[in-house]
Specification:
Elements lengths: L1 H11 L4 E2 L2 H6 L13 E3 L4 H14 L3 E4 L16 E4 L6 E5 L4 E4 L5 H10 L2 E2 L12 H7 L6 H4 L6 E7 L5 E5 L11 H5 L8 E8 L1 E2 L3 E9 L2 H12 L7 E6 H10 L10 E9 L1 H17 L4 E5 L2 H12 L1 H5 L5 E4 L9 H15 L2 E7 L4 E8 L4 H20 L18 H4 L2 H14 L19
Parallel strand pairs: 2-4, 3-4
Antiparallel strand pairs: 1-2, 5-6, 6-10, 7-11, 8-9, 8-10, 12-14, 12-15, 13-14, 13-17, 16-18, 17-18
Helix pairs in contact: 1-3, 8-10, 8-13, 13-14
The structure holds flavin-adenine dinucleotide.
The site of flavin-adenine dinucleotide (FAD) has 36 residues, from strand 3, helix 5 and strand 10.
């Protein structure tokens, strides 16, 4: 490895390669509770440096783990087999905002919220908005196929990627897609790369679709005395003819934690709240907000607040964004799942999650992007308590089997990474898994790019 480190320093410069233990430690984490140390952290500044690093790693059979901001919730960036943590945050320039063609060109390390601001400054809108958007990167969003609250109306990252520049696992630079809205030439490699979790290529540039910015927005806070009634409102709104921009749910325990963390933002005695946003023209949002409020009341909401002013709207969203930091005040380990079900199954999924919580006697909270079926059951626990961790593991498995039995999927937006790899067999047949593995080996014959992710290594199989 000493010889390799010398060569890496030759490619990116000595100050962009770290091997000291304290530096490696900083890159051994993501937003899960897992830890794996890399042998070196390398921060390239340019595409050709990425290509040279990958070529070197491929020749020597060294694992390379692409990494953005490390906010992943499935262990996707973790260097589970040592090797190189390839941190792309120094490639952080927005190269173009093209008003005429409604698109942006960005390097992978651009922070998502910065792209939001750059687009909005030109009267445009980049809708994908993971709740981590103040820190996470465009590269990480594309690799995970990230979603967020606005997925309900506007779709997810996948729907906004027009083209990519990437470095393949063997070190070639290739481009996929382009700047056109329509493009059916050849295989759709762009779609293959989106959501590939850094296992098929390293994204070095992305061409992203923008849309005109909506003129007006209303945010509604609907308050419930019964969580299941909130679930029924979601199904009724979805079939009312209106497509809200967001429809987020929070259960009692989530509300209580958030209320302790930022008092006054939510009614702390509620069993559930929905945060629903409608956007569009001024007259349309006024009418849609009225219809949504009526449907919520008809399906059991005890109170509905319609926020028009930016300050009132921010107060509601502040509560939603505080969830992650509020929850870890109960116990230190947060296991964040995102099993997703068809929309009509949301009330049933909520019912089953409540049963799982009681059966395993765990702190299971429910919140998330309920409008698109992407509930986020989170288990708040302590990884140092082995007895409780056994119950947590059993509960997690039951969450997955439940979602799949309802026609759902293991992950709506956080990816499989290392945490959900053991459960892929629940969702996919052997021929399906084998097809995916063959795609991986065709692109990465030596298996150097992000090994240990998505597919369980044979030696780890349950
Ligand atoms: C508080 C909080 C809220 C969150 N809310 C949401 C949400 O609403 N919706 C949602 O979808 N996710 C959410 N997430 C999860 C996470 O933020 C997303 O998955 C995000 O896309 C990860 O971006 P990142 O830059 O941190 O990537 P990382 O965590 O560094 O990496 C994620 C994956 O992308 C790969 N990768 C990173 N950069 C590249 C690249 N340039 N080329 C190839 N592969 C690359 C990595 O190898 C890894 O597999 C949340 C996380 C937190 C902590």
């Amino acid at each position: 490895m000493q010889q390799i480190i010398k060569q890496l320093k030759g490619i990116v410069g000595p100050d962009k390669v770290a091997t000291a233990k304290e530096d490696l430690y900083c890159y051994s984490y993501d937003a899960t509770f897992q830890r794996f140390m890399p042998d070196a952290v390398v921060k390239p500044q340019a595409r050709d440096q990425v290509a040279a690093i990958v070529k070197l790693a491929n020749q020597n059979g060294i694992p390379v783990y692409p990494r953005g901001a490390g906010t992943g919730l499935s262990g996707g960036s973790l260097p589970v087999m040592g090797g190189i943590a390839l941190v792309l945050t120094d490639m952080h320039r927005i190269l173009e905002i093209d008003r005429e063609n409604l698109l942006a060109v960005a390097q992978p390390g651009v922070v998502t919220a910065e792209l939001h601001r750059a687009a909005e400054n030109k009267g445009l809108f980049y809708p994908p908005d993971p709740a981590s958007s103040d820190v996470c990167t465009i590269g990480g969003n594309i690799a995970e196929g990230a979603g967020g609250p606005r997925g309900l109306k506007y779709g997810v990252t996948r729907d906004y990627v027009l083209g990519l520049e990437l470095v393949t696992p063997t070190g070639e630079v290739v481009r996929t897609g382009g700047k056109t809205i329509k493009n059916v030439s050849g295989y759709d490699l762009t779609r293959l790369l989106v959501g590939s979790e850094g296992t098929l290529g390293i994204i070095t540039e992305a061409t992203l679709k923008l849309i005109p910015r909506p003129q007006a927005v209303r945010t509604l806070l609907a308050v419930y005395g019964d969580l299941l009634k909130a679930g029924e409102s979601i199904v009724r709104i979805s079939t009312s003819g209106i497509v809200p921009a967001t429809m987020e749910i929070m259960d009692r325990l989530t509300i209580q934690c958030v209320s302790r963390h930022s008092p006054g933002d939510l009614p702390q005695d509620a069993e559930a709240v929905l945060i629903i946003e409608v956007d569009g023209t001024e007259s349309a949002v006024k009418e849609e907000a009225q219809i949504v409020a009526r449907v919520c009341r008809e399906t059991g909401a005890e109170d509905v607040v319609v926020a028009v002013e930016p300050g009132e709207r921010e107060q509601i969203w502040r509560a939603r964004k505080a969830i992650s930091s509020a929850l870890v005040q109960i116990k230190p380990t947060k296991i964040s799942e995102d099993a997703t079900v068809p929309r009509s199954k949301i009330p049933e999924m909520i019912r089953r999650l409540q049963q799982i919580r009681e059966k395993y006697e765990i702190n299971l909270v429910i919140f998330g992007h309920a409008g698109d079926g992407n509930l986020h059951p989170n288990i708040i626990t302590d990884e140092n308590d082995p007895e409780e961790m056994k119950r947590v593991e059993a509960a997690t498995e039951e969450i997955f089997t439940t979602a799949i039995s309802l026609g759902g999927t293991l992950s709506g937006e956080h990816g499989i990474g290392v945490l959900k790899a053991p459960f892929m067999k629940m969702e996919f047949s052997q021929p399906e898994l084998s097809l995916m593995r063959r795609i991986k080996s065709a692109l990465d014959p030596r298996g150097i790019l992000n090994p240990g992710k998505i597919f369980q290594e044979p030696s780890h199989e349950r």
